[in-house]
């Protein structure tokens, strides 16, 4: 009919599939962007731990980086961190570690170096920050995993489930590798 709009036409199977795929790709891109923004925020907070900042940043600029960390985590001492950075620089110079090499280190490599040379006492605040930084990403992932498993378990078909059963099923789903190793036949004789 001449007055009908093109939007009123039913979509073919290929068009529906294409639309579904594009919606999925858009959602996937949004999720990646959201997670990257969160990680960039954490990286900005711990910017003082970047080797380029620890090694090359001037004494006048360091308090700015330390302040961004202290705004979110009050467990650290600004004075302690600011006195440890020159100490770390002196240690790297005394150990004859080339600046180019140390600048290419990742944060994990720097922590391994601190463990290897037992620097926990001399730069305790910096090593504590590094350990805290490395545990942040892991703790976020485990929480997300728990919620995604919960979403799979408690769907609209199982919405009448009580809390105890839901908790048990969630633990079994999260710890699937352990649950698969349990011999359920051994419990039938109890």
From TrEMBL:
InterPro entries: HATC_C_dom
Database matches in Pfam families: Dimer_Tnp_hAT
Molecular function GO labels: protein dimerization activity
Residues annotated as domain HAT C-terminal dimerisation: 108-175
This protein's name: HAT C-terminal dimerisation domain-containing protein
